[in-house]
Amino acid sequence: MEFFHPVIGQEKAVELLKQAVAQNRIAPAYLFAGSDGIGRSLTASCFIELIFYNSLPPEKRVEKSAAIKKRIQLRNHPDLLWLEPTYLHNGERISAAEAAEKGVKRKAPPQIRLEQIREVSQFLGRPPLEASRSFVVIEQAESMAEAAANGLLKTLEEPGKATIILIAPAVESLLPTLISRCQRIPFTRLNSAAMEQVLTQTGNQEILQHPEVLALAAGSPGEAIFAWQQLQAIPEEFLNKVRKVPQTLRQALDLARDIDKDLDTEAQLWLADYLQQYYWQEFCHQGMVEKLERAKKLLQKYAQPRLVWEVTFMEMAKSFVA
User: Which SUPFAM superfamilies match (predicted)?
Assistant: First the structure.
């Protein structure tokens, strides 16, 4: 059976993982490093499915294969703990999907929290129930606060009969002490043929007719789909307003107010990416791109969004007048 068949354009990563299984040299920790939306989580699911399948007696493998796959996709296999960043809302941790469903106004990006890392330790404190080893997957591992990252260190040193997979955009986005305990699996952005294949297979071929979305995605099908969804969700009138560079300080303040009022932090981060691409294509102005890059970094550090946009647009307006 070909467990990695759904993974497209990541031949090197797939081959490294296949060899680890073939040689029975599964590492206690992996770092799946690469941009968002290029198949890191899908590859992790396929890898875990293969390990769990091999744990079964030969006479049970074909019979149980579909059930294993479904349980992993639903993330309710007893030997799998899958973590993603969360928000705190009324004292309760909720995922990004749950926050969107409940209409929660999100003022800061979600995080992997210390309480979640403690859950990892508790989960790994017992032996695997059905498989040969347990698995923990931590998505957006770069969002771990320092206390959470330090809490994970001890677990990485002594994971027991388990493997931990950290998913992050780049090696340098994590603490060096975490990186040193992981085997790195590199993921690369897809070429145009692979992009077309993924978008067509997922029913998103309409995106192929929009070069500005493909340029923004830069080889990431997931980012292309997310960008397209964002464009559909934002009213055209609002988009036309933010596409215009403020020419006065009053316009800069008004635009910052509207962005803070109408968009949550995740959408604001996407908007900064979009405006970088749009302003560069329209004006070829490096200074605007750099100002928006700084704005993204500040938003990611939980700075007050309205103030970030006010400063960014005011500087642009001053440059425009100059």
Answer: P-loop containing nucleoside triphosphate hydrolases (SSF52540)
